[in-house]
Amino acid sequence: TGGGRLAGRRVVITAGPTREPIDPVRYITNHSSGKMGYALAEAARAAGATVTLISGPVSLAAPAGVQVVPVETAEEMLLATSEEVDKGADLFVATAAVADYRPASRAGQKMKKSHESLSLELVRNPDTLATIAAREDAPFTVGFAAETTDVEHYATDKMKRKKLGMIVANDVSAPGIGFNSDDNAVTVFWPGGRQAIGPASKREIATSLIGLIAERMA
Ligand code: PMT
């Protein structure tokens, strides 16, 4: 027993979109399905880790043996992730597609239509990935970067700025990969190296990624 490349390791993963309420019946969100993050949670579990998945609203079943903490907003995601990392974590992987902005205020009642146009004021959301990576007791931290142009440039810049151990660049401009599809293709960057993975199913990509991460952590 105790086999697996992440045996005995505690792993925290964020997945899915966040949902930022405008009023009691409306919200801002994106097309993330959670598939990439759930596949990573499964692969980490299969590698022997104890896995907690901080999940935005998705329609996926909890992977066997994985603790799922459901959240809705970016603020809730940061809070739940911080609480989990407080307990001690060896690895944090941020696959979630977090809304960068939320409505400045949440209307208590359903907003009525009256004027021909309506402006919605948005404010910046907290960045879970940057917050965890900046901790003194930061686990090995892996970010994702969903980009449509100049993928490598933005991804490596993000890795340096946010002080990450690794970044997974996801070109979300190509059809059939990225948001909501079953397949994906990524390029992984770490200080001094890189590797392309896929196109392949998100399950296969997750297994390769966990292998690469375990190598870098060792
Ligand atoms: O969920 P699926 O349908 O399977 O799709 C998978 C995916 C395309 C969503 C996934 O592979 C992916 O690329 N996730 C990152 C999406 C994203 O929004 O990237 P970003 O470039 O905006 O954010 C960069 C990194 O910072 C990400 O690790 C993100 O989780 C993190 N972040 C961003 C903003 C924020 N407020 N908090 C964060 O933690």
UniProtKB/TrEMBL annotation:
The organism's place on the tree of life at top rank: Bacteria
Cofactor: Mg(2+); FMN
Positions of CTP binding: D100, K110, F144, K158, K162
Molecular function in Gene Ontology: phosphopantothenate--cysteine ligase activity; phosphopantothenoylcysteine decarboxylase activity
Keywords: Decarboxylase, Flavoprotein, FMN, Ligase, Lyase, Magnesium, Metal-binding, Multifunctional enzyme
Annotated EC: 4.1.1.36, 6.3.2.5
Catalysis: reaction(s): N-[(R)-4-phosphopantothenoyl]-L-cysteine + H(+) = (R)-4'-phosphopantetheine + CO2; (R)-4'-phosphopantothenate + L-cysteine + CTP = N-[(R)-4-phosphopantothenoyl]-L-cysteine + CMP + diphosphate + H(+)
Residue ranges occupied by any DNA/pantothenate metabolism flavoprotein C-terminal domain in the UniProt entry: 6-215
Keyword field contains Metal-binding: yes
Co-factor binding details: Binds 1 FMN per subunit.
Region (Phosphopantothenate--cysteine ligase): 11-218
Pathway: Cofactor biosynthesis; coenzyme A biosynthesis; CoA from (R)-pantothenate: step 2/5; Cofactor biosynthesis; coenzyme A biosynthesis; CoA from (R)-pantothenate: step 3/5
Stated family: In the C-terminal section; belongs to the PPC synthetase family.
Its biological purpose: Catalyzes two sequential steps in the biosynthesis of coenzyme A. In the first step cysteine is conjugated to 4'-phosphopantothenate to form 4-phosphopantothenoylcysteine. In the second step the latter compound is decarboxylated to form 4'-phosphopantotheine.
Name of the protein in its database record: Coenzyme A biosynthesis bifunctional protein CoaBC
Provenance organism: Marinobacter lacisalsi
Species classification: Bacteria, Pseudomonadati, Pseudomonadota, Gammaproteobacteria, Pseudomonadales
Gene: coaBC
Positions spanned in the full protein: 184 to 401 of 401
